[in-house]
Amino acid sequence: MELRRITRMEDPQLPEVIVLYQQAFPASERREVNQLKRLIAGQSSMFFHVIEEGGKLAGLFVYWKLADFYYLEHLAVCPEMRNQKIGQKVLDYIREHLSGEHLLEVEPAVDEITTRRINYYRRNGYEIVEKQYRQPAYDNPEKSYPLWLMSNRDYPDRRELAEHIQVIKEEVYYKPCL
Q1: CB neighbours of 155 closer than 8 A, spacing ≥ 6?
Q2: Where is coiled-coil annotated (predicted)?
């Protein structure tokens, strides 16, 4: 598995990756394409990666380096590449190369699919740290959606978690809308 960061709107693989992005995430959980392209080209703290396996597009992975932690924004595997442990390889990469704290959002456990996703992250060292979290809408920070936050570490001091949530909201959701 290879991760290749895209930093130019003219990248020849970007159109194909954007199709995957749009198919993998509902509108409420993704950015408008022009905003995404502007961030890819101009936001150095956002890392938009193509996942390749055997020279083929296998998925996408987006994370942010924020202050003293990482926010894992999107991970999607192409449907035809599923069940080949691509997601596991990305999580292994994260563990080996992004040392420190990681935060990610998941949908609340309301059905078999969402429960399986949470358990998958648990098996990879993440635990739910906040169930009252509200993700601001990408296109309108006045709207929000209930999600849970998971992390690879515990937060005995809830103020630290609140500070990190505020950084995520400001850097990932509010500032790009300006």
Answers
A1: 129, 161
A2: none
